[in-house]
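Record pair follows.
FIRST:
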Amino acid sequence: MDEDQAKIIHALFSQPENIYSLLWWGDPEDNKINARSFIINGHDSIPIFAHESEAKSQIAGSGFEKDLVSVKPALLAAILQGMDYAILNPGGSRPIQFKTCAVAQYAENN
C-alpha cells in the first residue's frame, strides 16, 4: 500500500461516521458477525465502502444487497482482524486492496 492509500485508509477508519460492508449473522440470536468475502486479485477480500451510495451502486444486482450494513469503523476493523485482506470500493475506478493488519490499530476492543 502506498502512502496516499495509507492516508485514505487512515481517514476512513478514524472517522466518526459509519462505513459499509457486507455482513451477516448465522443466527439472529448469535453475537458473531460474519463478513462476506470474495476472491479479488487472487486474495480472499472483504469489500468495504466509504459511503452508502457507493456501496449500493457497486453491489446492485449482485444478490448481496440484503447484506449491506452500516457499521462503526472501529467495529469493522475488529471484524476484519479475522481475515487477511479487505478492498475499499472494489467496483470503483480506484479500488484499494490492503492487508487487514493495517487497520488493527483502529479495532474496537470488546
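SECOND:
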Amino acid sequence: MTASGAGCASLIPAEWAVGVPGAPLPEGNQVGDWIAFADAQTGQLDKANGRTADTIGIIERCEKRDAAAVAAQRRGWWPFG
C-alpha cells in the first residue's frame, strides 16, 4: 500500500467532470434581459468555483485519511517502538 491519493478521485461526483454550463444567452434585446443573464451567469460561476473548493477539500481529506491508515499500519501491534 502506498500513501498516494489512489482512489480519492472516485469520491468526486461523476457529473462534476462535465463541468458547469454557462447560462443561456438572452433572447431579447432589452437591458433587463441582459441583467437577468448576467445574474444567472454569476450563479453558474459561483457553482463552478464551489465545485473546485469542494473537490480540493475532498481530496485533501482522503489523502489525510490514507496517510493515517498507512502510519497506523507501520506501527504494528507492538506498543513499544
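COMMENT: The two ends are 21 Å apart (CA to CA).
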